Structure formats: C-alpha cells, structure tokens
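Quick one before lunch.
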Amino acid sequence: MTDAYVTLSLAQVHELACEVLTHHGMALPHAEAIARVITQGQRDECQSHGVYRLLVCVRTLRSGKVNPTVLPTVGELASGIVSVDAHYGYSLLGFESGLPRLLEKARANGLAAMVIHNCFHFSALWPEVEAIAAEGLVGLAMTPSHSWVAPAGGHKPVFGTNPLAFAWPRPTGNPFVFDFATSAIARGDIELHARQGKPIPAHWAIDEHGTPTENAQAALKGAMQTFGGYKGSALSAMIELLAGSLIGDLTSAQSQAFDGGAGATPCHGELIIAFDPKAFLGDALETGQQSAEAMFEAITNQGARLPSQRRFEARERSMRDGVRIPADVFADVQKLLD
Ligand code: NDP
Ligand code: PYC
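Model of the pyrrole-2-carboxylate complex:
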C-alpha cells in the first residue's frame, strides 16, 4: 500500500497521453481527443478517470477489439437527433465531431439529442456536459458500461456503472454540474483500491457469495452495488433503456458479452441531450435563471456544497501547481513506452 505521488504539469499529462496512445498505434486525432479528456480528469483530481485510463486504453488497443484509426461519421436520424457512428473506435472524437450539429439543432428546435453508436467508452461525462453548458445550453449525458452491478435486492450483475451527468449554465461563473456513476462508486475507484491493497467501504460491493465486502479484489469478482438502493437501481435501468435499447445499441450485459473476457474498455452507445433555455423561457429567461440562482443559494447559504465545487477547486489548484498521479500508476504508464 503506498500514497506516493508524481507531479506533472497539465501539458505534460497531455503529452504523455498522446505519446502512449500513438506508440500503441492510435491515430493522432483519437489520441488527442482522449488526451484532452484524460488531462481534464486528472486536472479535476478524478484519479479513476485520469492517467490511470491509459492502462485500460492500451490493454484495449492490444486486444485488437478497438479500431484505432477509423474516423467517426456524423449524420442525423430526425430533425432533432444527431447520430454519430464511431465505427468501433473510441467515443471522444465522435463526441467532438457531433457536438456542433447537436448545438445547432438544440438552438433550432429548443432541444436536441445526439446518439453515439458503436463506441469504446471510458471517459468521465462532465467534460461533455460542461462543453454544452459553455454554449449557454443545459446538458444531460448517460451511457452504459459493462454488467458489473447487481440490481437492488439481487446479487448478480446486470447493470453497468452507468454514469449520469447534468450541467446547467449560470449567468456568471462555473455551471452547476453533477456527474456520477449510478453504482455506489465508479469501478475505476475499486480497481485503484485493489492495485494499492486498500480496503473499500462495505456498501460498495458484495463478494461472489453475495456478502458485503471490504476487500477490493473480492468486490471486483463479485458484484458492485447501486447508489441509493432501489432508486439508483431504477436510474441505472433507465440508462440501460435510454442509452442502450432506445438508441439501438448494446446494454451493459451485451457489451460485456461482446468483450468476451478481453478486459477491454466497454463498447456500446451514448445518449446526450441539449436543451436551449432561450427556447423554453423566451422573455422569461432571466426569471428562470433567477429562480435557479435562488435554489443554489438556498443550498450554499446553509453550508452545504454544490456538486462539482470540489472539482472546480481542484481545477484551480492543478492549473496552478500541476497534478498528482499515484506513483504506481505513473510507473506502469511509463512502462507502456518501453
Ligand atoms: P463521485 O461519487 O466521486 O461524485 C459524484 C458527483 O457527486 C460529483 O459531481 C461530485 O462533485 C458530487 N459530490 C460528491 N460529494 C458531494 C457532496 N458532499 N455534496 C455535493 N456533491 C457531492 O463520482 P463517481 O465515482 O460516481 O463517478 C466518478 C466519475 O466516473 C464520473 O465522472 C463518471 O462520469 C465516471 N464514470 C464513467 C463511466 C463510463 O462508463 N464512462 C462509468 C462510471 C463512472 P465533486 O466532484 O465536486 O466532488
Ligand atoms: O469506472 O465504472 C467505471 C468505468 C467504466 C467504464 C469507464 N469507467
């Protein structure tokens, strides 16, 4: 068990990610899109979705499952639905390619959706909803993963860790953003605990015999738990339906089957929705914004914090001082350049 860290600047993280990915055959546009998001993850002190993900990306490249060079194609399914086919490449270049069309359609129609199909997907979702909020729109994003999570009341994995992210643009300063797995914790966090031999809280997972466990290795072999019991379970099922069945792509169980034991990044679809407040509110835009601000103040005035406040503080710190990467993760990433 170790708590040693290596400090890098944001530019160094980006460069390292590009170098590792291109060294393993990834085309530069994909490597750069992935490097941007990995840098954002590390910058915001999300250890499970920062530099650590390079280890999984390279395992995926080595598995031969992902197409490392194919470019996504952007089309539309209806006047309000942008479709991006990643053609079994990673998702992030697909997101970047489709975003301008999503924004344009949301402004024209009041709201619009973007579906990304056939994509290997590993990333945190806040960079995507924040990109939508930066354009003055409200963003919502969700995706399945691999079936690692038991439904509330059950003990066999059905759901993915299925993240749900939301961003609301504010008149000044950072948007209101949350982004969480619908499991008690992202699987990446359990993997990091397992690597470092650290115990986990007992409510995160059950072992193969259905008993709550504090052993991260046993948790990875057993089943993760949803957050909030049956409520998280229902939200996770909703994500399987909206970002799997509805968009004609794989559920987490199907993605797991497609993986066939390779341990690659999950491959499935993603659903992103953008709402234009100007269309919903018209002349009452300011009133809508003011009621939102009053709600945020009612939270913070009593000492409670807004989601993402920790992340925004971490961002400032990282931009000033650089980022801290667990030394064991950094050492393993370095080995990928041998
Ligand atoms: P966390 O439990 O760390 O955080 C979830 C959210 O809750 C964050 O917005 C966080 O804000 C907020 N939050 C935490 N504590 C508080 C508090 N006390 N008061 C108010 N808000 C709070 O995240 P998860 O482990 O669930 O997920 C981590 C990341 O993993 C996410 O970015 C997610 O997208 C990603 N992920 C990606 C998957 C994929 O398939 N692509 C699958 C699963 C997860 P803050 O950050 O400021 O603490
Ligand atoms: O941490 O749960 C996770 C995860 C799954 C896919 C990418 N991240």
